[in-house]
Amino acid sequence: MRSPAVVTIAAAAEPAMSSSAELHNTQVDLSGLLQVMGKNLYSSPAVVLRELVQNAHDSIVRRRLEGDDPVERAAVKVVCRPDDHIIEIHDDGAGLTKDEIISYLATLGVGMTRKLREAHDKTELIGMFGLGFLTAYVVAQRTEVLTRSMNAPDTVWRFTSNTGMNYALSEVGDDKGGPRQVGPRQVGTIVRLTLKPEFHDLADPDLVQGILARTCCLLTLPIWLHPDGLDHVGHRINTTPPWRETFRNPAEGKRARVAFAQRFETSFEPIVAVPLDVDDEGLRGMWWVQGSGSYGTSDNRNVSVFVRRMLTDDDARDMLPRWAGFLGLVIVDDELTPTASREDLQRDARYMHVRDVVHDSIVKGLVQLSHDEPELWRRVLRRHKEALLGAAIEDDDLFEVLSAELQLPTSDGDLTMQSLRKRSGGNIYVQLGVSGGAEEMLFRARGVPVVDGQRFGAYAFCRAHIDRFGGELITLGTEAGNRSLFSNVDVDDATHDLLRHVFCPRGEELRCVRFSPTSLPAVRVVDREQQLKRKLEADDADKRMGNAVLKLARSFTKTIDDGAPVHVYVNLDSDAVQALLDASGPMQAHLGVLLRTVTELIAVRGADDEVVVADVLREFSNAVVDHASSSTMGE
After folding, report:
1. Helices H, strands E: what count in the chain?
2. Backbone angles phi, psi at 195, to 5 degrees
3. Residues 6+ away with beta carbon under 8 Å from 364
4. Distance of CA 482 to the CA centre of its chain
5. Containing H/E element for 289?
6. Residue 161, beta-bridge partner list
């Protein structure tokens, strides 16, 4: 029996046309259609395993629905014959009659399962579109179906096709046994694929195990893998998910959930797995915390969504919040709508509802974990503190839990917000520039920790904490921040000129101030706002940044007044500065060089700072030598 390469589709009814119009039937190039649907509808040839196991599953369900219970312990068996490059799927289902083969198996887009669902309204049926069998033609150079129908158990039919363009259908005799059956011994079906050379790996048992262990693990019917042929012992692929089990104690449940999560994690060992706490009866699943440490910007969200217990989307990352880059999720919801390939989901109202429910359940679960299992919670905090900073910023409920427990990176190590604010008088000091500079040293000397605002989420978390609990957020290296740190002092012109000559030889702006500790004579600070402004207004900025981004950035820098890129804050409470002011002649000159070079050496320079460390060291050394020589001559 052969199908034509081009088929004609006649419309059942057509709109009214003018009498002069010619009526034609639509022509379909079956070859092109099969190529597009078989090769482009699905993302991976491995999908053939999922689709054929799904068909076998539905055949068994059909047999039960139509009143003929299958043999006891009915199951789907996946058989690998790697030496022959063959893979087989066996089932104890309803089988197909000759008419059903023609009507369903050999007709594009018409599926038995859809009709059964309409008749029985049974959600345990999986198939929807009647397209899954097309995947066989993508990977197989020969596709063979051997089937014995429960409605005609005396006959075995063989369907064979190489390309899907045409097929042969014949009646065969009873099975005589042997490694390659000529038909199922009982009612049921065997699908046998002889793989194309480029797809020989699909008969590899380890590969098949990995695919089925994820895609079919939630099916209630047993799925068995026989890695060396049906005559050898096989092992069961699927398992009962934790949310369908009853455990003797909480510890057993925890172990089972972590073990189940491990099926879906190839890179991380789960720390803890938590069942979804939802009121929606149709939605079930669990989420887990990945064991590897994460950065705030890393996104390892691992999401697998099952519809009718079959994996439908294994990359639905947006089911988890953006901040949840350290979480994994498995959910089952039969009301979600798959696309035709059943590898993705339609982003419809149900999808958005499930996403919101999952988000709320995870937040609730993290809060509960912090209360019920403090030791485990501390482990989560240690591994994912940066990511949790972002989570706290985005979610008010999590902020309430995390604001007291999360540790921030500071100049004195990681500190909780309570410890940080206690040591800084209720305020929060943040450094946005390179750490280790004069400002940081100033605060180290004062015993005040400074938050590293360049670390992910740290600055925003500090801002959110100030907004909720009050206080002042002081950003070091900015004009506003520096004003809050240093108390300006008016000095006479002579003193001002002397200090400017000593500390500002390259045009830096002098600020005469008082601050503690008095042992620090001066602080050299690069103005980060001026630094940004000069960088964005440079001619080569156009080459490095897109026009839209550059325009937006320059609109911000226009609000910054022009000023010196570097400020030097001279501490008039310093005994060393007072000694400089009291000295005269060569002594004052030597002291001036020593104080300036020390100030420059302890500062971290920005791109606009002209100080060269080697030159400063040379000046410092020369000043020490000159001072020693002057002292010797004086003696």
Report:
1. 21, 24
2. -75, 145
3. 277, 397
4. 39
5. strand 283-290
6. 143
- Map out the domains of the chain as residue ranges: 35-236, 242-379, 407-634
The C-alpha angle with vertex 488 and arms to 482 and 494, in degrees rounded to 5, equals: 125
Quote the CA–CA distance of 546 and 308 in Å, as a whole number. 47
CA separation for the pair 558, 205 (Å, rounded): 65
Distance CA 378, CA 363 (A): 16
Which region holds residue 188: left if phi is over 0, alpha if psi is between -120 and 50, else beta? left
Question: For the stretch 451-477, what's the b/e string if a residue is b when 16 or more beta carbons lie within 10 angstroms of its beta carbon?
Answer: bbbebbbbbebbbbbbeeeebebbbbb
Residue that has been written with the tokens 């000397």 in this structure:
445
- As a CATH number, domain 35-236 is 3.30.565.10
Q: Say if CB 602 and CB 436 are below 8 A apart.
A: no
What letters, b where the CB count within 10 A reaches 16 and e where it falls short, cover 257-268? bbebbeebbeeb
**Sheet holding 302-307: strands in order across?**
270-275, 283-290, 327-333, 302-307, 310-313
Which positions of the chain have pLDDT values less than 50?
Answer: 1-12, 129, 175-179, 436, 539-546, 549-550, 552-554, 556-557, 560, 605-608, 635
- Per-residue confidence (pLDDT) for residue 286, from 0 to 100: 95
Burial annotation 105-126 (CB, 10 A radius, 16+ → b, else e) = bbebeebbbbebbeeeeeebbb
Helices (H), 317-437: 349-372, 374-394, 396-402, 417-423
Closest CA to 363 of 332, 326, 391, 403: 391
Classify residue 546 as exposed, middle or buried by CB count within 10 Å of its CB (0-12, 13-18, 19+).
Answer: exposed
Instruction: Output the six-digit token pair for 629.
Output: 């020589």
Q: Which pLDDT score is estimated for 40? A: 55
Render the burial of 502-530: b for 16+ CB within 10 Å, e for the rest. Answer: bbbeeebbbbbbebeebebbbbbbbbbbb
Phi and psi torsions of 476, nearest 5°: -75, 150
| Residue 179, token pair as written in the block | 């490694």
Name the 3-class secondary structure at 286.
strand
Architecture, CATH, for domain 242-379:
2-Layer Sandwich (3.30)
CA angle 353, 355, 358 (to 5 degrees): 110
317's CB contacts (< 8 A; 6+ apart) are 299, 301, 303
Burial of residue 243 (CB within 10 Å: 0-12, 13-18, 19+) is middle
The pair phi, psi for residue 316, each rounded to 5°, is -85, 65
Residue-level pLDDT at 2: 40
> Strand 428-431 relative to strand 451-452: parallel, antiparallel, unpaired?
parallel
- Residue 254 three-state SS: helix
Largest CA distance in the chain: 126
Cβ burial of 582 (10 Å; 0-12, 13-18, 19+) is: exposed
Q: For 124-147, write each residue's pLDDT tens digit.
A: 665 554 566 878 888 899 999 999
d(CA 21, CA 531): 74
For residue 291, the one-letter residue type is G
Q: Which amino acid is at 570?
A: V
Return the bridge partners of 410, or none: 413, 451
Termini Cα distance of the chain: 120
* Residues 6+ positions from 42 with CB-CB distance below 8 Å: 135, 138, 341, 343
